[in-house]
Amino acid sequence: MNPSILPAVEFVKTQDPSSSTGSTPHQIRRIGQILLDMGKLTLEDIENILQLQKTKQVQFGAAAKQLGLISDYDIQHALVCQLDGSELHTKPEGIAVNLPVINQPDSILAESIRSVRTQLILRGFPSSQNALAIVGIQKSAETSHFVASLAAMYSQLGKRTLLIDANIRNPVQHKLFGLAENRGLSDLLVDHATIADVLVTIDSLPNLALLPSGTSPVNSSELLSLTRFKAIHELLTSQFDVVIYDTPDIQETTDALMVCHHCDFALLLVLKHRSRLADVSAVNKQMTDNGIAIIGSVLIDSL
């Protein structure tokens, strides 16, 4: 793959402490302390929660909610604040990350991705605006490889980077990182998991977290249209320095547009000798007409 960025105008785990009745007092105190610091609980509240948990044998978060003290959002916010690496699921050792830019850091490909990263930084990503959706003009595995590589490169700058696989229909990221298909974004959207349940850290890239796509739904567009997606997005972008989304082919589904709508920038991926200029122009117009800020376009040769 020989990527080069073009001006936009031209191409126009460990177990979740709140989900187990067997959590240790130390784990409970940590969550309670965070909620206390957030001003969501008082010391008296925490004592009442612990007492209810002990007598009713319910989860810490469930006990707090039963008492009407906190919401699901408060719990998830506290869990994300707790992300120091030890509370996240960790990719098992011995499984290779299928990313040439990591395995061959001095390769031409790695240098090309670094060049794209540098140009994005010069264009203002990340700054206070730290969410980037990467959109392929057409369906290709190379798109997901590029997204994973760029996220890995940002994490190597010491920035806390989150890679979100929003390609719910045809997910790839879990395969690139040697993970089994498991819960992820779609499960968060239907409230079948918490953030701490689904975020995964990578041993070889300690500043990178992955949010897999999750259980394949039949209504991905509807899920991404939920106000819950906006809330999850805002929570995650407040806790990471860089958030990068892998999205589906924009000509195949409206899912990519839904994701881009919440992001600060979109980056278009154009396949050399395969993407038609008319399609690129049409996608550019579609996105700008919908108020999406295109930070640039990357021309990809081949893997």
TrEMBL record:
Top-rank taxon: Bacteria
Gene Ontology cellular-component terms listed: plasma membrane
Record CDD domains: BY-kinase (cd05387)
An example Gene Ontology molecular-function term: protein tyrosine kinase activity
One Pfam family recorded for the sequence: CBP_BcsQ
InterPro entries xrefs: Bact_polysacc_biosynth/exp, Cellulose_synthase_operon_BcsQ, P-loop_NTPase, T2SS_E_N_sf, Wzc-like_C
Keywords: ATP-binding, Kinase, Nucleotide-binding, Transferase
Protein name per Swiss-Prot or TrEMBL: Chain length determinant protein tyrosine kinase EpsG
Organism: Nitrosomonas marina
